[in-house]
Predict the structure.
Amino acid sequence: MTDSSTPLVNADYLAPVNTQTWVNGRHNVRCVKVIHETWDVRTFCFMAEQPVMFFFKPGQFVTLELEIENKQVMRSYTISSSPSVPYSFSISVKRVAGGEVSNWLHDNLTVGSELAVHGPVGNFNCIDFPSDKVLLLSGGVGITPVMSMARWWFDTNADVDITFIHSARSPRDVIYPRELDHMASRLDNFGLYLIVERMENGLPWQGYRGYLDAAKLDMISPDFMEREIFCCGPAPYMKAVKALLQSRGFDMSHYHEESFGETPVSAVEDAIEQAEVALAEAEAVNQEDLLRVEFLGSGKSVQVTAGETLHTAAAKLDVMIPKACGMGICGTCKVMVKSGETQMDHNGGITDDDVEEGYVLSCCTVPKSDVVIEY
């Protein structure tokens, strides 16, 4: 007979959990699994050497730090897994013809490979825009962030009514088909609708054909005007979806899309042209208009004109601050401002806590006075 005063659990049997929690920054990880999703898409699963709980908001992304042909390359990829499986995270990558990073990952990243990642960051997520009715729209490999959201709601038994519309080129290009079918079969409030652009010989298909248009949207989701919409896919796909919703009078404050990647060629060309103009006009600049930027790590400083970024200042001194997107999205170029006034125009690549501590993203921050940077 058990004495009611005796503890049911002996504290000696409880071991403390010495687990770190993922925070925005640079982390070393190891590839632990590679999954062939389709003929040209692979999922790479990562863990840390010491247990780390990879908490993030479904829909956010990380930036991989890679060395390809003896040069550092940064590239951002959405996390396709869910934070409900916290000790690992995954990205799903489509092999793109001529794509430097995607081809390198498919050909070289194997189980046991180690690399550094930066993140997680991103404003495109389902936590910051909660709703009990959502419409997930994706095209191609753009399915990854909305799949992370769907997995999160499924794993946490969330009371969310989900309509999931995915567009692919052909039946063999549909990513995660078995898992999507499983979720739809287990949840009454999960509607799955697949659309393929074209058919292929020998592949059966019972879904929609063509493209997502007004007729299909009305048929699949007649109440889409009442839903929070999350959209991701190739730029033409998102442009078409946005135009469709606007033509129907949808309240676009309830529309969210993901858009990031390497800096567009046009932006690079503009930067080169601006540099050439700046060089030609350098001697005409009024010295009183110049601002001084100092980098503590190197002990170097340089004068810049109004509107030049901290990253530009660093480049003039050969101070190499890692950068991936160049648009304030990926968070790779974060630096600490020790003194002085700056102005930052970012796109979600930095947290409010980091800003409060004095961090900025050098690619989209300009000095408003003489500044000192800890880098």
Summary: Helices lie at 100-108, 143-155, 177-186, 214-220, 235-247, 265-281, 310-316, 352-357. The two ends are 67 Å apart (CA to CA).
